[in-house]
Amino acid sequence: MKKKNLISVVGPTGIGKTRLAVDLAKHFDTEIVSCDSRQFFKEMKIGTASPSEEELAEAPHHFIGNLSVEEYYSIGQYEEDALKKLHELFEKYDTVILVGGSMMYEKAVIEGLNDLPEADEENQKKLQEIFEDEGIEKLQEILKELDPEYFSVVDIHNHRRLLRAIDVIWQTNKKYSEQIAVSQESRDFNTIRIGIEAPREELYDRINRRVDVMMEKGLLKEAKSLEKFKHLTALNTVGYSELFKYFDGEWDLDFAVSEIKKNSRRYAKRQLTWYRKADDIHYLPLGYSQEDFNGLIGYINGEALK
């Protein structure tokens, strides 16, 4: 039986993945599965640049605004839910689109998570104390020393990611980056990875402009409505944590917005580092032409026949 095809659209924040995913979904008359872990939450539409109503109307999307920030949702749960959804979609379609810049969430779908140990209570307690006494910088320092490769791609502002990685390293005496690099199981579908590339300065300019647009669309009001949830993991993210500091009187608004831009650029740099290590991504230029898109379709059709 012919294998089904999953087209995975990847790339840094602000590069235009949503538009390309919609164009591909329309071409193949199929549906889109999101692997953007920030867009799962319905209360965070503006700050996560969720697809617009128009984009959602152009092609059916899954895992967009399907959760509340108050709900706990792990990457393991997402892997299970996404594979179940793909199984359903492959009953109807030969090709499905996956899109998102959350690197580990894409990996969970296309390769599977590795059989990592459960959290060790003692380690977690010790690390939580370090976090509370010495701040997130100390956790960053520990991880950088133990596993510089994972440190170069992880979201270093997400203390839970740091805690998890350090805990696993302490338990196994192996680098976290090595343990997540080994695929647990193969999938019963082909994965064709597509990216968009742009000169770094152009990408950073797009990110800066996008933050300005988010502010115009009401990011400040959205963040204010979520201030009571700022202790939750979902809100410990770029675009919100900076504005919470403004609300607390630590920063003025202009500085908070400049920090959102800076931290978004840093996140994009980490994403680029991650994707640069892959040799299976076919790239389109930013602002691709119809000719470029036609060439991409030819490439996808060729890969699908392999």
Automatic annotation (TrEMBL):
Report which residue ranges the record marks as coiled coil: none
Q: Which reaction does it catalyse?
A: adenosine(37) in tRNA + dimethylallyl diphosphate = N(6)-dimethylallyladenosine(37) in tRNA + diphosphate
Q: Which cofactor does it need?
A: Mg(2+)
What domain of life does the UniProt record list for this protein's source?
Bacteria
- Which keywords does the record carry? ATP-binding, Magnesium, Nucleotide-binding, Transferase, tRNA processing
* A UniProt-annotated Pfam family: IPPT
**What EC identifiers does the entry list?**
2.5.1.75
Q: Which residues bind substrate?
A: 13-18
Per UniProt, ATP binds at: 11-18
An individual GO BP term: tRNA modification
Marked site, Interaction with substrate tRNA, at 102
Record-level Gene Ontology MF annotations: ATP binding; tRNA dimethylallyltransferase activity
Where do the segments described as Interaction with substrate tRNA lie? Answer: 36-39
Give the family from UniProt. Answer: Belongs to the IPP transferase family.
Briefly state the protein's biological role: Catalyzes the transfer of a dimethylallyl group onto the adenine at position 37 in tRNAs that read codons beginning with uridine, leading to the formation of N6-(dimethylallyl)adenosine (i(6)A).
Q: How does it assemble?
A: Monomer.
- This chain belongs to which protein, by name? tRNA dimethylallyltransferase
Name of the gene this protein is made from = miaA
